[in-house]
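Reviewers of the previous submission asked for a worked example of the structure-prediction workflow described in the proposal, so we include one complete record here. The input consisted solely of the amino acid sequence. No template or homolog information was supplied to the procedure at any stage.
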Amino acid sequence: MKLQSLKKRIVFVIGLFLLPLLFVGCSVLEVAGPPPNFYNLTPKSTFRSDLPQVNWQLIIEEPMAAGGLDSSRIALRPHSTELKYFAGARWTQRAPEMLQTILVESFENTEKIVAVGRQSIGLRSDFILKTELREFQAETYGSEDSMLIRVRINAKIIQSSRRAIVGSKSFEHVVFVEKDTSMKSIVLAFDEAAGRVLKHLVEWTLMTAK
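From that input alone, the workflow returned the following structure tokens.
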């Protein structure tokens, strides 16, 4: 009887160790389905003709963003207090990282700046551009036949030597999507809205930082 009781106790103890592993194994299982479609936005390449040629270097930090927007998923706001995501669609990068990438390229496309880069490359800069992504979503607010795309970025220019803010401004643009609310049309509207915001942000930075 003692031997049988000992065997039962051993089996019970082993079961306690294996039970968490069983749940861990279950947690990594995913339901099979079609892979998502990936989308990206494009940098700006056209700017006002009177932009100044500047002799300073700029670091662009990755934009800060609220948790719901700090994602590669494409955000949809059906109500002012609710945030969802489009099924089967993703940005190629997290939204803040993607915007940092095309912002660097947009500055380069002006051909008006000595050097511009990300914070991670270790560039010794004269100015730092800090941004916050405050709006980056489609909005429906109850309408299924139309929506609008809203992009809003707050920017601050920091002079590196003095750690002083030399400029601060918010940029926002809205694009309406009507009738054709396919994912392609939605992404093109994101590209238009973000492009208008980035255009004005780049121009303002080059004309403000001195």
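The chain is about 30% helix and 35% strand. We consider this example representative of the routine output the project will generate in years two and three.
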